[in-house]
Every structure is written in C-alpha cells, then in structure tokens.
Amino acid sequence: MAWEDRRDRIDRDGPALVWQQIADDIAADIESGALPSGSRLPSEQVLADDVYGVSRPTVRRAIAALVERSLLTVVHGRGTFVTSRTAQSE
Question: Domain range for residue 59?
Fold first, then answer.
C-alpha cells in the first residue's frame, strides 16, 4: 500500500480530535483489507511529517488507540504492524 499524502482527510477545524481521525483512517484501511495482516506501517515520523502533516505525539496517540483496539502491534526496534486477524478475534 502506498502511503500518499493524507492531509486532506483530516478536518482540523471540526469537533473530532485529530488523533482520532488518524486512528479511524488507518482502522478503515485495516478493516477494508487495504492494510493486510502483518503489514508494516511507516515510522511515526513519516506518518506525522509526510502522510498526515501533524505532530509526532498526535500520531503516537492514534497508534496507541489502535493498539488498544488490537488492530496494531508495536515491536520496539522493528516497527508497527497490523495485527493478524486471528489475534484480533481472540
């Protein structure tokens, strides 16, 4: 999956929190299959600077929310990965 610029997907003036919009955007890609199990996400810095145009802590909060929902797994030193479908259903 190509990680093109997604700044236009974020409504900075609306009532929804920016980190929640990012989490929802990534979750939609996971649930649609555009991001299959085992896929590696770009680094937090790349997601922040190049993809969403937000601060790194905002991306970090979005990733944490997806980890809480068991959609992502963070492996320190290796990256952030889409959790396998079997692990999601457990």
Answer: 17-89
